[in-house]
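Protein modeling request. Please complete all fields; requests missing the sequence field cannot be processed.
Requester role: graduate student
Desired output: 3D structure, token encoding
Chains: 1
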Amino acid sequence: MSRKRTTYTADFKAKVVLELLEDGKTLNEIASKYNLLPKNLQNWKRQFLENASLAFDKSAVVKEYKEQIKELEKQKDATSKKLGEIIVERDWLEGKLVSLDLSTRKCMVDSEGKVQAKQSNKKITPSLNRQLQLLHISKTAYYYKATILFSSDEDIKLLNTIDIIHTKHPYYGTRRVEKLLKRLGFEKIGRKRIKTAFEFMGIKAMYPKVRTTKANKEHKKYPYLLNEFKNDKGQVVIDTPNKVWSTDITYIKLEKGFAYLSAIIDWHTKKILSWKLSNTMDVSLTTSVLNEALSKYPKPEIFNTDQGSQYTAKEHIDILVQNDISISMDAKGRSIDNIVIERFWRTLKYENIYPSSYTNIKEAKEGIEEYINIYNSERLHSTLEYLTPDEVYYEGVNNRCYNAKKVLLKVA
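Delivered output (412 residues):
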């Protein structure tokens, strides 16, 4: 007996996405509240943001549906001339099956599985078994439900522990992390599970790796442009503000789940230009942070990122191209190429995140905002001759050079 698939109205989806966009709760909390899969929430949020502009251009929507209706009427007229159920099934299959993946084909199945003639369009809906045969889906594959990654309390504990280990030992790979986790009581953990956790958290060990995967053909990769600024010790040295900006995303542990923090840092002055905390790690997070930084500060000459899908996505690349900013990307598996933001993550977590033990996203936002304000305007940096990022940044922007001794005496 076939099982009825749960469907959700557009109003319900909009309500849940708006609650998700408020960032007051984690993705898992909202999913648990409405008994939904976190993956569904991520998809709904993406669809909501992609189609938000249609709310201000109704004519485009009407035009699109008119064209679709006209096309469907032509198809109906052609189909009505066909003879028999076999021809109807053949055309139905040819119209639906065009090199689609399994998940898409599963969405096409009418789960009620009743053979009936729908008088409105004279379309015959095949039985569930027949639909599965036509779509080349086995019953096992159709009823299979994917396991939700890292949703239990034990999983959250594991992620938080890995985050602490990586922050303290960013050069540890999966082998060393596995050994250390077993010392800490995670007896059943394996390297495959740790690798999955690394990918889920956006973590990369800070050392060069052998390139074993091919680049995503859908997303263009850009060369690393900072080699020309390296000194004899192999360190990247930038001498002026707004020459190079760098960005990344990091995992933030919370008492009830986790969140993702994205930030942009000026390489020379170490000033945090913009940041955002979100319950999902997607392109909307990175583009919003980039747009905010560009609206507040003069654009950089070079923008450096890793090769994550959020940074190679068309939406993110287009912003940089439109602003005539050179794009630089770390070599595959070399997070050390983006060392300045990696060091900030380490400082933030040891000085703020771990001691604070934030309960939820709202509390974390307030605490991180207060810390970054202090970091920019009050915290002295040894690499800046014990000046603050704000002092070096604004002095450099105004004069394109600065007298460190003069500024230090003025502060004193």
